[in-house]
Design brief:
The complex is a heterodimer of chains A (176) and B (563).
Chain A (H helix, E strand, L loop, with lengths): L4 H19 L15 E4 L4 E3 L10 E6 L4 H21 L2 E6 L3 H4 L2 H7 L5 E4 L4 H5 L7 E6 L2 E7 L5 H13 L4
Parallel strand pairs in A: 3-4, 4-5
Antiparallel strand pairs in A: 1-2, 1-5, 3-6, 6-7
Helix pairs in contact in A: 2-6
Chain B lengths: L1 H16 L10 E12 L15 E13 L2 E10 L9 H4 L6 E11 L3 E8 L13 E2 L4 E2 L2 E8 L5 E12 L2 E2 L3 E10 H4 L8 E13 L12 E13 L2 E10 L14 E12 L2 E11 L42 E13 L10 E17 L7 E23 L4 E13 H6 L8 E16 L2 E14 L12 E10 L3 E9 L17 E11 L2 E10 L2 E5 L2 E5 L2 E11 L1
Antiparallel strand pairs in B: 1-2, 1-29, 2-3, 3-4, 4-5, 5-8, 6-7, 8-9, 9-10, 9-11, 11-12, 12-13, 13-14, 14-15, 15-16, 16-17, 17-18, 18-19, 19-20, 20-21, 21-22, 22-23, 23-24, 24-25, 25-26, 26-29, 27-28
The chains are: A alpha/beta (176), B mainly beta (563).
């Protein structure tokens, strides 16, 4: 076998592995992806490993946003109003992942606290977590349980939070 | 060789036959797709050119493979040809087909170390020394193709080292770069060292470029280095960030072949407690542009990142005048306040959010030495020449759960010659813009909402200044209907009713409308958007940066999907 054939073969191998993964989606849906491990800082300066955000049955909502993204702010304001209820009824928590770069990242703590948002906020300034989850644009929201992604949605329009709540009910078997 | 290849194939076949067992035996595959296509119709009135291809498109497909501690990924890109405003070299570099896999990597991550081969993105501190990133909507990707090693010997301490070349379209940069960084989170390294609710993070980084010197006239440094130190300190609601960077002389087209060394200083203090956030910052940049190819310009092969210390506006009309850092030299200050007046105050049963922001950017106070090395001396503080001034205020008010209003005002002074052309000589002069918007948002049904924007912008030009195609006063109206979870219908029109350019008959021929309409459909992680628009030429900003986009007239189609 000549040298140039080897990368081709490897590529073929990857492709076959990929196809087999796609073919077996029925038993393992694509959304069963687990949370990748990326180390991010929260706004209190603590380093958080993203793979440890969800380790129990309690639902975790991970929402990618930016200070310059209007629909993101609408979405997170809606979550803010429902947060207390979601926490009490479903034991859910919200993690807001800011993809703001150095231009705006310094403003994130003031932006969050100034709006009295009660969420845990992570700073993904190098967009490592965004890339690891293949997020194209913000807003993009994931629902996670036991480290496994069970639902995701890109974009936001008013009323999406009700769908998310339906998912929370399904996931926990709680709520009316 | 033959044996390895064959065994790889056998392994591969084995994994295929085992597909029914569990996907975990193979690993996990995920990815995303983004496609943007546009048709172009010539529109001489607004300066939209004729495009021979009639339709252009950019497509990106990412695939990630993960198994245990191993991750590999690639990105296929297609530019057939690049959308207008994206650098045309994406269609001509490499083999010239506009097709390729310019991004691929493999990473092995362990508790104490991480090794990456291939393309990677890296940022240290605010990026004053190093930041590689991708902003595909602007045609920007300066990832490093090489090797990176991270070592985390103890909790909170991280060493990073790399060597490689930056991506340049479908090629790599002419210069090679290498660097090292240390980052120490003292609170994590020494438990009980700091009081609860406080943190200290210190870091220092160094990057150097080697590029052969072949200039017939000048002696240029072949090795150019930049280094920086940074600290982040927090206690309770207070935090302070400081970063300083310094660079040796590096004559390039961007700095007009000046042999001056460069430096940068960034200081930011903030206070954030429930209901109030205050942020004040200062940034001084002196000749700090750094690229892995000294002849590169625009946003090609930038090694470091110098974002503007100004508010990033998103209201459509005011984005006509965005600020971008002048890497040759500037001093900027900014203050930002966010304040929530809670429910049940004198303002009634609902909360009101007030945001105020002020920024002012000036040229450095410099004296040219009039020598062949184009050197100068610079004072610390600024000169009288103002590049940019921005004062803005916004009030957001909720009226129950279903009605929201936003009222915003922006005042901008914009030195068009410096910001857009990098020229100190006055041609277009200072543009003064006063902008106001009223946004109404009404959720009139469980899953239906309507959003409207009414924007107005009064624009003043200096007497005798040259006028661009877009000038004078503007109005804009927007209506957006959203039906959760799937439908978005948006219609808007920008009208340059105060354009001052006249044709030979004295008619104001550029007082034109720029209508736009689009429909988007979303199903979980799939989004498809189709629209038509007459788009004014101007500057498109995504994330923290902006690029000029030419005027265009045509249909657009956009698809994004995450799998």
């Amino acid at each position: 076998m000549t040298r140039p054939l080897r990368p081709l073969l490897l590529a073929l191998c990857l492709w076959v592995a990929g196809t087999s993964a796609i073919l077996s989606q029925e038993s393992t849906p694509a959304s069963s992806q687990t949370l990748p491990s990326v180390k991010l800082r929260d706004i209190a300066g603590t380093t958080i490993n993203t793979s440890e955000l969800s380790t129990t049955d309690a639902p975790v909502i991970i929402s990618f946003w930016a200070t310059w993204c209007k629909p993101c702010i609408l979405e997170l304001s809606a979550y803010k109003d429902l947060y207390e209820k979601w926490e009490k009824e479903y034991g859910a928590k919200v993690v807001a992942v800011s993809i703001d770069d150095a231009r705006n990242a310094q403003k994130v703590p003031g932006f969050i606290k100034g709006r009295a948002w009660p969420f845990q906020v992570l700073l993904d300034v190098n967009q490592d977590f965004k890339r690891a989850l293949n997020v194209n644009n913000v807003p993009h929201t994931f629902l996670v349980k036991n480290g496994t992604i069970v639902w995701q949605h890109s974009a936001y329009s008013a009323g999406d939070e009700d769908d998310l709540e339906e998912e929370l009910k399904k996931l926990t078997g709680k709520g009316s | 060789m033959l044996v390895t290849a064959c065994s790889a194939f056998v392994l591969c076949a084995a994994s295929l036959s085992a597909q029914g067992v569990a996907i975990d035996d193979v690993g996990r595959i995920s990815g995303s797709l983004q496609m943007d296509a546009q048709t172009y119709t010539e529109d001489t009135l607004i300066g939209a050119p004729d495009v021979p291809e009639k339709m252009l498109s950019n497509t990106f497909v990412n695939v990630l493979f993960q198994r245990g501690k191993f991750t590999a990924g690639l990105r296929f890109e297609s530019y057939q040809g690049p959308l207008l405003g994206i650098d045309p070299r994406y269609g001509t570099s490499g083999n010239g087909s506009g097709l390729g896999i310019p991004y691929r990597f493999a990473t092995y991550t362990d508790d104490k170390f991480e090794i990456t081969a291939g393309n990677f993105y890296e940022q240290w501190g605010t990026g004053m020394v190093l930041r590689t990133y991708e902003e595909r909507n602007l045609g920007l990707d300066n990832s490093i193709d090489g090797v990176r090693l991270k070592v985390m010997p103890v909790e909170g301490l991280r060493f990073t080292g790399f060597t490689g070349r930056q991506r340049a379209f479908f090629d790599v940069s002419a210069g090679t770069i290498r660097g090292a960084d240390v980052n120490a989170d003292l609170g994590a390294m020494f438990t009980d060292f700091l009081p609860t609710g406080s943190w200290i993070t210190l870091g220092a980084g160094f990057v150097s470029r080697y590029q052969e010197e072949r200039d017939p006239l000048l002696r240029l440094p072949q090795n150019v280095s930049i280094w920086g130190a940074r600290g982040s300190f927090g206690y309770d609601a207070f935090s302070l960030d400081v970063e300083y960077a310094s660079k040796i002389n590096d004559p390039s087209p961007v700095n007009n072949l000046s042999y001056n060394p460069g430096n940068g200083l960034f200081v930011n203090a903030s206070f954030a407690a429930k209901g109030i956030g205050v942020n004040v910052g200062m940034k001084r940049i002196d000749n700090l542009d750094f690229r892995s190819d000294r002849s590169a310009a625009g946003f090609q092969q930038q090694v470091n990142y110098l974002p503007a210390l100004t508010k990033q506006h998103t209201w459509r009309l005011i984005t006509l005048y965005p600020y971008a850092t002048q890497p040759t030299g500037e001093l900027a200050i900014q203050a930002d306040v966010t304040w929530t007046i809670p429910k049940g105050s004198f303002l009634g049963d609902d909360e009101t959010i007030i945001s105020l922001n002020f920024s002012d950017v000036h040229m450095l106070d410099t004296v040219r030495l009039q020598n062949i090395r184009n050197e100068y001396t610079a004072n610390f503080w600024w000169s009288d020449r103002q590049y940019y001034l921005d004062f803005n205020a916004e009030v957001q008010r909720k009226w129950g759960r279903t009605f929201k209003t936003t009222l915003s005002y922006v005042h901008i002074q914009y030195d068009k010659d410096v910001i857009e052309k990098g020229l100190l000589e006055k041609t277009f002069g200072i543009i003064t813009a006063d902008f106001a918007v009223l946004e109404l948002w009404w959720q009139f049904d469980r899953n239906k909402s309507l959003r409207t924007e009414f924007q107005y912008m009064s624009v003043g030009h200096e007497a005798g200044a040259k006028l661009d195609l877009q000038n004078g006063d503007w109005v804009m109206a927007l209506v957006e209907l959203s039906i959760s979870p799937s439908w978005y219908v948006t219609v808007f029109d920008e009208y340059n009713y105060g354009n001052m350019l006249q044709d030979e008959n004295g008619e104001y021929y550029l007082r034109v409308h720029y209508p736009n309409a689009s429909v988007a459909w979303v199903e979980d992680a799939l989004r498809i958007q189709a629209g038509y628009g007459r788009v004014r030429g101007g500057i498109l900003c995504v994330g923290g940066i902006c690029r000029p986009v030419p005027a265009s007239n045509g249909f657009t189609l956009g698809v994004t999907y995450t799998f």
